[in-house]
Amino acid sequence: MTIATRTTLLATLALTPLAAAVIIPIPPRSAFLRASQDTVTDPVILTLATLGIAPGDLIRIRVQGEFTFNTANVISRNSVAVFSSSATLLASNLQQRVPGAIEAGVDFISAPTFNGGLPTDIPQAFRLGDHNGPLPGVDVVVPPGATHLFLSVYDSFYQDNKDTDADFAAEVTLLCAANACCGSTDFDGDGDEATDADIEAFFAAIAGNPCAGCGSTDFDGDGDEATDADIEAFFRVIAGGPCIP
User: From residue 212, how far is each of 3, 29, 75, 116, 199 by CA, in Å?
Assistant: First the structure.
């Protein structure tokens, strides 16, 4: 096997799912965000350990299917998620219904309730799907202390939501285990790890000039290339530290 082939193989394995994807149906009226004068059902609450997922792991959550969100039967894939340190869910009239919520993913601000205009936003939640975009979802690192994952649709009024063909769901896949997501510190593929040549090759690749045998500039394996997080992970691993802090 040539160095270039080996490097390509390692880069591929870094984001090859470690386990089969799990499909979890999401009820069309499920919510962990606040509701007002509305009829909602509980969100899906997943115990991460039963899925073989632990803090520090990189997982992929992809939305499948769609539901309708009004009496005109307009389709939507609006959906949200939040990690938590417990399975506790409080009453639907409260803004912070998930007391163990833990920050993760890209923040967004959820809209007020349709009835009453009450605030619903919690800073720890992250969005999975938008209104009618193509097969949305995210890759996200499970935060420290997380034991559960909450999934639900995202709406300001849930009572008229329907999923007549019962196809709205989330596909959850473990991409790589904690501290095993990063690329090789033999970045230039010459057989020597963590050398000045590897550092030079890494920054050249970030600048758009990769060598023939170079690794991926998505060094931390989160799906985004040449970010500050990739640079931090590269030097953390060179120093003997973990891939994910």
Answer: 10, 51, 46, 60, 15
